[in-house]
Amino acid sequence: MNWNRSIRGLFLALVAAALVVWCGSWQRVEAQEHTGTGAQQLAVPPLPGQSHADFLKAADEVLKQMSEILHLAPKGELKKSIRSREEIRKYVLKDFEKEKEKEGRLADELMGKKLGLIPEDLDWEPFLLDLLTEQIAGLYDPKTREFYIADWIEPADQREVMAHELTHALQDEHFSIDAWTDAAKPNDDAEFARHAVLEGSAFAAMLDWQFRDKGISVRESPDLDKLLDPAMMTGGQKDSKFDAAPQFVRDTLLFPYLSGAVFTQALLRQYDGWKGFNRVFEHPPASTQQILHPDLYLREVKPVKVTLPGLPAAAAPQWKKLEASVGGEFLVLEWLKEFSGAARATELASAWTGDEYAIYAEAKPAAGKKLPRSLLVWRIATASDDNAARLFGGISQALQMRYEERTALLRRPNYFEFQTPQGGVFLRCVAAECLVVDGADRATYDELTRAIGWPAAPAQPRRAEGDQIARVTARLPQLVAGRAPIESETRTAPWRSP
Fold it and tell me: What is the CATH number of the domain that holds 334?
């Protein structure tokens, strides 16, 4: 899923929350080292008001300061402006109107809804546009080399936004950040990892700027993963779209900033500051796994290559492939977390070593349907056979909880299938790999497994004519009166809770 095409800009509320935590952590450290008390003061006092000339002067001052922090000298002229909410909405809308972007967002929507990470009834595009317009406080556009700030940002907050966005500007002058990020295509996971480098390093650089007069830096600070709590981050306003967003969307928006900052801190420590950090642009991370586990990046542990076969000839005309890419540990983690809880999901997802998925849309959708039916084929590699067997348990639980209506359920060791109104769902793990096929018939699934080189899957048992296959739904408290409920079928996803 390529969230980079949908998500750009800085969360001012996230910045404010992070500064509170950051400041508080250093107050505790200083309290242990020094006598006396006193609140930390911001490096730049609030400004009562600001003219356009003041804005340009402030931007030039912050640019000079960021250049010194990052060891990156400015190279050329940078446009600077203040934009209204409507102007920002038009900027975001420009990308929305591109046909290629529309198809990409449809792939994201179908994938998110197929996995149960986005509610089926969420009107995705209007929601996304409102969310991004609400949250963007400032932006650097590499195509036009323009930096701008939203006009609703208070002057006292503008310099923090400048510090973040001008980091992007300086990095772009030296490393061409658009081309650097695009070089990871068509691997969405690797592209998202590079996006995390950009946002995480800009976030960390902003913190260094904020506390530069205190002699405090991210490199010497306490571990950021213990300080930056995603649960603290809110939209910062009443009826915020961010606060109302599904957990997966919030996590996806926060990941580049928070996990990216933790990754940045690890590299700043390893490479002795910002000058050494810049080598990441010569050796970019290969996956979100390396962002989540910086030691894997430093040890150059890279994902394995996983390939998917195409759809069999009989099924191919029914479907249009929207996207084939890599989901990465981040997507596996988010999917399992939705249905298994954070601790178990983290343990299972960390065994990921590679994957490839393909998301298809129905070639000829039924008239009157808002969204076409979708088909997901996802092949996931893990570190060992045992890891795959454990992952099977997590995925089978997610699939059961995702689909409340299931018929023709067949379960065998490391194999699980059932039927839904949207098509057949199949999960199988062989050796260290797992294959998920969601939305196909059994014949299509069998052809896919043959193309991979796996042995035939277990067959449905034959039943006497007239026998009915029991309908199993997650809504039923019991299958048969007097029997205990199936525990894994009684929990629903958080956004489905009343």
Answer: 3.40.1000
- Helix/strand/coil for 422: coil
> 386 exposed, middle or buried (CB, 10 Å; 0-12, 13-18, 19+)?
exposed
Longest dimension (CA), the chain: 85
Q: Which of 255, 198, 208 is nearest to 19 (CA)?
A: 208
| Mean of pLDDT values over 417-435 | 97
477 conformational bin, left if phi > 0, alpha if psi -120 to 50, beta if neither: alpha
- CA dihedral (419, 425, 426, 427) positive or negative: negative
- Residue 488 is part of which domain span? 316-458+469-496
- Does 320 share its domain with 209? no
104 and 250 co-located in one domain: yes
CB 355 within 8 A of CB 378: yes
CA-wise closest residue to 260 among 285, 232, 231: 285
Give domain status of residue 337, yes or no: yes
Please calculate the CA angle 315-317-323 and round it to the nearest 5 degrees.
90
Residue at a domain's end among 298, 329, 353: 298
Q: Are both 62 and 191 inside the same structural domain?
A: yes
Which residues, including other chains, have CB under 8 Å from residue 169's CB and lie 6 or more apart? 63, 78, 140, 145, 147
Which position has the token pair 């317009």?
Answer: 133
CA distance 67 to 166: 9
pLDDT in tens, 76-106: 889 998 888 788 878 877 777 765 677 888 9
Cis check: omega of the bond before 421, within 30 degrees of 0: no
pLDDT of 496 strictly over 50 = no
Residue that is last in its domain, among 298, 324, 348: 298
Helix, coil or strand: residue 140: strand
Encoded amino acid at 416, one letter: F
CB 288 within 8 A of CB 221: no
Indicate if 243 and 320 belong to the same structural domain: no
- Is the separation of the CB atoms in 432 and 388 below 8 Å? yes
Please state, in angstroms and as integers, the Cα–Cα distance from residue 87 to each residue in 41, 43, 150, 374, following that order. Answer: 34, 31, 9, 35
Contact 12, 153 (CB under 8 A): yes
Same domain, 343 and 222: no
pTM of the entire structure?
A: 0.85
Q: Are 3 and 108 in contact (CB under 8 A)?
A: yes
The number of domains in the chain is 2
Q: How far is CA 154 from CA 45, 88, 133, 210, 375, in A?
A: 12, 17, 17, 16, 47
Residues 215 and 326 in one domain: no
What is the percentage of the chain residues whose pLDDT exceeds 90?
A: 60
